[in-house]
From TrEMBL:
This is ABC transporter permease. It is a multi-pass membrane protein. It comes from Kocuria sediminis. CDD domains: TM_PBP1_transp_AraH_like. One of its GO terms (molecular function) is transmembrane transporter activity. It is found in: Cell membrane.
Length: 327
């Protein structure tokens, strides 16, 4: 009897420890974000001004939307290097469509991104090609298409479309409303639907997912299509914000979206992650950029340096926590 009770107590303690490590792995970025905010406020009290905090969240909108799609792909065990070029294509398509109405200017980039993502998904999910090669090739091809369509840049002159990226509702930027709605919907899909369960299953163990009856090919097609569509939406909103379409506007977003997702607790190997963590990862990257701007004496290149350091730290911490959970 004593042995049974002791064994049960040890088992319960191990389960609690694993649960704690899982929470730290998924949501530790929230603590990092709060800590960075406190440090920034200590050195620059103006950091905590409502206007500045609103600016951070607004700036995080574009990388945040891309990070949602990237998170779906990473959790499924893949990677999407083409999203930056899709953002650039989205800005160009939006600028070309803007003279025909704000509705077309908003939806056309989403459809363009979804089509490009669908092609990626079919090559990866059905033709069984490597995600890295497919999306790297798409990065170059999509950028080429955007450059052919736009030349240097396309200016959007007036119209309702530009008010989407620069207007507000109830005193809050439209971009913030869109970002929060997108993350809420993504979290609902990932955590409360059969599709979300299949994404986790695929990323955790593809062979096991097949044995459970998951159509892994269709799931891969879906996550890459989602990623492309959200990159297109980010491009449309960026064009609305800047009143222009530029093929190279999305350069670097593919790496930043991966960094935001991983910093937010999404494993590069797949099977683990949350939308709340991904959102905080995107906010953390936007906060780093804001802090560097507040310092003033540092140029924008330090943002990439700081983001890279956070990414390395996140990968190391995730590796340690994953090993401890398996013990």
């Amino acid at each position: 009897m004593t042995t049974t009770v002791s064994s049960r107590t040890t088992s319960d303690a191990t389960a609690r420890r694993r649960r704690l490590l899982e929470l730290v792995q998924s949501y530790g970025v929230i603590g990092a974000l709060l800590l960075l905010g406190l440090v920034a406020t200590a050195f620059s009290p103006s950091f905590a001004n409502p206007g500045n905090l609103t600016g951070i969240v607004t700036a995080a909108c574009f990388i945040g939307l891309i990070t949602i799609g990237q998170s779906f792909v990473l959790i499924s065990g893949g990677i999407d290097l083409s999203v930056g070029s899709m953002v650039g294509l989205g800005t160009v398509v939006a600028a070309l469509a803007a003279p025909y109405g704000w509705g077309l200017a908003l939806t056309a980039p989403i459809l363009a991104g979804a089509v490009m993502g669908l092609i990626n998904g079919l090559l990866i999910g059905k033709a069984r090609m490597a995600p890295f090669i497919v999306t790297l090739s798409a990065l170059l091809a999509v950028k080429g298409i955007a450059l052919v369509l736009a030349g240097s840049s396309i200016v959007i002159t007036g119209g309702t479309f530009t008010t989407i990226g620069n207007g507000s509702l109830l005193g809050v930027s439209n971009l913030i409303w869109i970002l929060l709605a997108a993350f809420a919907l993504a979290a609902l899909v990932l955590n409360r639907t059969t599709f979300g369960s299949r994404v986790f299953a695929l990323g955790g163990n593809e062979d096991a997912a097949k044995m459970l009856g998951v159509d892994v090919g269709n799931v891969k097609v879906a996550v890459y299509t989602i990623s492309g569509a959200l990159a297109g939406l980010a491009g449309a909103l960026l064009a609305s914000r800047l009143s222009s379409g530029v093929a190279t506007l999305g350069t670097g977003y593919e790496l930043r979206s991966i960094a935001a997702a991983v910093i937010g607790g999404v494993l590069l190997t797949g099977g683990v992650g949350s939308m709340l963590g991904a959102l905080c990862g995107a906010l953390l990257i936007a906060t780093i950029g804001n802090v560097i701007n507040q310092i003033g004496s540092l140029n924008a290149y330090y943002q990439d340096l700081a983001t890279g350091l956070f990414l390395v730290l996140a990968v190391v911490v995730q590796g340690v926590l994953t090993n401890r959970r398996r013990q």
